[in-house]
Design brief:
Blueprint (H helix, E strand, L loop, with lengths): L1 H5 L4 H8 L3 H14 L1 H17 L1 E3 L5 E3 L12 H43 L5 E7 L2 E6 L4 H12 L1 H10 L14 E2 L7 E2 L4 H8 L1
Antiparallel strand pairs: 1-2, 3-4, 5-6
Helix pairs in contact: 2-3, 3-4, 4-5, 5-6, 5-7, 6-7
Length: about 200
């Protein structure tokens, strides 16, 4: 539901995507927004900023232009275009920041692999494959799986925080990013991992 709020998804769409009744979605959203009113205020704040400036930015300055908000309401489908742009205004700073962190983390991961090669003379058989916003797929030989898990987690959590703060002095995180792992013999067979050795062994075989 939180993800749906960031995407500015409607109640019926949220109900369909979560398998819940619309009434339950309305109740969950109401309780969430009552508990976290600052979040609700931010939705309105960023939309108003977009209307005035025709762009939004991620916390470290990635900009998304929203000139489509200039569309005259008399134009066919203007309301649909404007509403989509306002949804993008809310989503882009969040998802854009996730993407900023991901790109920095991938570079860190590649650096870890190269440093390992310089230290041991053997290059780890693990390669980044697909990256979508804040999601990353890494192909890895079974031999290297535990080293890969360590490198990926460091790169995408504590290390990326240090990297962003080094690039943007004065920028502060309210928390260290967290990640979830899904592991499997192929991408279509992945399952969530509970960070235990037995859980990892079961998923990998």
């Amino acid at each position: 539901v939180i993800f749906g709020l960031i995407y500015q998804q409607g109640d019926e769409g949220l109900a369909a995507s979560t398998g819940r009744d619309v009434e339950e979605i309305v109740d969950i959203k109401s309780r969430f927004l009552k508990r976290f009113p600052v979040g609700l205020q931010w939705f309105d704040k960023v939309k108003n900023f977009a209307k005035k400036h025709l762009f939004v930015e991620s916390p470290i300055g990635r900009r998304r232009n929203l000139t489509s908000l200039l569309v005259d309401e008399s134009v066919q489908n203007a309301k649909s275009v404007i509403n989509r742009s306002l949804r993008q205004a809310v989503n882009s700073p969040v998802q854009g920041f996730g993407s900023d962190l991901m790109m920095a983390a991938i570079r860190l991961f590649d650096t870890y692999c190269y440093d390992y090669y310089l230290e041991t003379g053997e290059y780890p058989q693990m390669k980044t494959n697909v990256s979508v916003h804040d999601s990353l797929t890494v192909d890895c030989n079974y031999k290297w799986i535990f080293l890969a898990l360590d490198m990926i987690e460091r790169a995408m959590t504590s290390a990326v925080v240090e990297e962003v703060q080094k690039r943007h002095p004065g920028f502060e995180f309210t928390s260290v990013p967290e990640i979830d792992f899904e592991i499997g013999a192929s991408e279509k067979d992945v399952e969530g991992w509970d960070f235990s050795y037995t859980g990892n062994k079961k998923k990998s075989l």
